[in-house]
TrEMBL record:
Matches recorded under Pfam families: Tyrosinase
Protein name stated in the entry: Tyrosinase
Organism per entry: Corvus moneduloides (New Caledonian crow)
Signal peptide: 1-26
Domain named Tyrosinase copper-binding: residues: 210-227, 391-402
Gene3D superfamilies: Di-copper center containing domain from catechol oxidase (1.10.1280.10)
Keywords: Copper, Glycoprotein, Melanin biosynthesis, Membrane, Metal-binding, Monooxygenase, Oxidoreductase, Signal, Transmembrane, Transmembrane helix
InterPro entries hit by this protein: Di-copper_centre_dom_sf (IPR008922), Tyrosinase/Hemocyanin (IPR050316), Tyrosinase_Cu-bd (IPR002227)
Cofactor: Cu(2+)
EC number: 1.14.18.1
GO CC annotation: melanosome membrane
Membrane topology listed for this record: Single-pass type I membrane protein
Record localization: Melanosome membrane
Residues annotated as transmembrane: 482-501
Length: 536
């Protein structure tokens, strides 16, 4: 437990830091949530360093038209012009800051992930660690940071409480303040919410962050932004998200008051009153109510965090994931396949997300495995997609999922072209901008090794043997594919050598002497072919 004194001191320090900190990543920049910006469709705020839009006078960036991908989309969303998230963010803005070099941010006032310094020239790689390898002091600091984020308003960002149409096409802005933690809860909701079609009609088969290729890059970007926001509001530039390695776990070992909150003594669906998280209020959990009202989540409080780990539907999720499940998933060579949604077979992404069997890679949406299994197992706030980020276990869980993604990238070393450029579900093509992030990021920008984005995982650094194995695996897989040909070639070669030797030796003898034996050169042929569930 954290003392009141510790929390008070951190809150005071936080209040001071918020006065001097530069803007960070999030959803709608406060400086662009006004009539002028919406009607002009331009969000190019000035950088405080020189007062020019996007820091143009300092060569940080410039205000540019948004370049939208023209690649065709998959058939999953049969509408056009009905959802504000289509061709993000063009419904709200069609001109934003385009930053140069290593600069980043909605006004180019920050450094790209993995860089620091005034001119963003210093490379850095920080290490995310297992939560159980943190010292008591480090663990308590992490819990305090979470609580601070839940109680501090975001200075730079606001959320939309209405659609663009409900805002009278920008002439009547509908935005509100939100605390730092809930800003990210709301972004996760907004990316995965249903499409409002008018009347009582909605379209549920849409998600800009799940059930398609962008699932892993989207959450990778989400965690990096969340991590940076904590660094900024606390002044702790070395902070990294810890992860929970849940492989082979028999129960929720972080579900106690020392870590993420134990079970309430009289109500098993609530958290222990001894946990700092028992006082947290959730938002964006009542999707059916929003749909019936054709409204967006307004981030009003909707009750305490709910969690009852292990008392879930065992027919859907009989157990937590095993090491064998993870290893099989990592062996899959295809990142994406087929329809590129939750029905994809032999897809690493779909298997890791949990819509395919972790022993066969065949799609089976009636079961929830790997990533989805953890959400279902928690049996509460974390088990409903749109509001799942309300439970702080979310960040521990997704950090470990991201580490599995990282292992796959290191093992298979895919080119960027492996990520689908076209025909993925809406919002998931390689060049699509991720919803609802401003500044803008494309899906393909996060389909790269974590060290290029400025972070690593402790357990991926330590075992040299595992790193060597990950390096060697793709070559072994290639050898396995042509093994039969190699054996055949060896047998054929030995037969040819024996025959030639048998016929050549008499010739040597006839010449009455010996000659230098030349190597046998045989040209080889060129062998080129050698939701959670949608609703928990």
């Amino acid at each position: 437990m954290l003392s009141c004194c510790s929390v008070s001191m951190l809150l005071f320090a936080l209040g001071f830091l918020l006065v001097i900190l530069q803007p960070s990543t999030g959803q709608f920049p406060r400086v662009c949530a006004n009539v002028q910006s919406l009607l002009s469709k331009e969000c190019c705020p000035p950088w405080d360093g020189d007062g020019s839009p996007c820091g143009e006078l300092s060569s940080r960036g410039s205000c540019q038209n948004i370049l939208l991908s023209q690649a065709p989309l998959g058939p999953q969303f049969p509408f056009s012009g009905v959802d504000d998230r289509e061709e993000w963010p063009s419904v709200f803005y069609n001109r934003t800051c385009r930053c140069e070099g290593n600069f980043m941010g909605y006004n180019c006032g920050e450094c790209k992930f993995g860089f620091s310094g005034f001119n963003c020239t210093e490379r850095q790689v920080k290490t995310r660690r297992n939560i159980f390898q943190l010292t008591t002091s480090e663990k308590n600091k992490f819990l305090a940071y979470l609580n601070l984020a839940k109680n501090i308003p975001s200075q730079d960002y606001v959320i939309a409480t209405g659609t663009y149409t409900q805002m009278n096409n920008g002439s009547s802005p509908m935005f509100r303040d939100i605390n730092v933690y809930d800003l990210f809860v709301w972004m996760h909701y907004y990316a995965s919410r249903d499409t409002l079609l008018g009347g009582s009609n909605v379209w549920r088969d849409i998600d800009f962050a799940h059930e398609a290729p962008g699932f892993l890059p989207w959450h990778r970007a989400f965690l990096l932004m969340w991590e940076r926001q904590i660094q900024k509001i606390t002044g702790d530039e070395n902070f990294t998200i810890p992860y929970w390695d849940w492989r082979d776990a028999e129960d929720c070992v972080v579900c106690n008051d020392e870590y993420m909150g134990g079970r309430h003594p009289t109500n098993p669906n609530l958290l222990s009153p001894a946990s700092i998280f028992s006082s947290w209020q959730v938002i964006c959990t009542q999707s059916e109510e929003y749909n019936s009202q054709q409204a967006l989540c307004s981030a009003t409080s909707e009750g305490p965090i709910r969690r009852n780990p292990g008392n879930n539907d065992k027919s859907r999720t009989p157990r937590l994931p095993s090491s064998a499940d993870v290893e099989f998933c990592l062996s899959l060579t295809q990142y994406e396949s087929g329809p590129m949604d939750k029905m994809a077979n032999y897809s690493f992404r779909n298997t890791l997300e949990g819509f395919a069997d972790p022993q066969t890679a065949i799609s089976n949406p009636s079961q929830s495995s790997l990533h989805n299994a953890l959400h279902i197992y928690m049996n509460g706030s974390m088990s409903q997609v749109q509001g799942s980020a309300n439970d702080p276990i979310f960040v521990l869980h997704h950090a470990f999922v991201d580490s599995i993604f990282e292992r796959w990238l290191r093992r298979h070393r895919p080119m960027l072209e492996v990520y689908p450029a076209a025909n993925a579900p809406i919002g998931h093509n390689r060049e699509n901008y991720m919803v609802p992030f401003i500044p803008l990021y494309r899906n393909g920008e996060f389909f790269k090794p974590s060290r290029e984005l400025g972070y690593d995982y402790a357990y991926l650094q330590e075992p040299a043997l595992e790193s060597f194995q990950d390096f060697l695996t793709p070559y072994l897989q290639q050898a396995r594919q042509i093994w039969a040909w190699l054996v055949g070639a060896a047998v054929f070669g030995s037969v040819v050598t024996a025959v030639l030797t048998r016929h050549i030796r008499p010739c040597w003898k006839k010449k009455g002497g010996t000659s230098e034996i030349q190597p046998l050169l045989i040209e080889s042929e060129d062998y080129n072919n050698i939701s959670y569930q949608s609703n928990f």
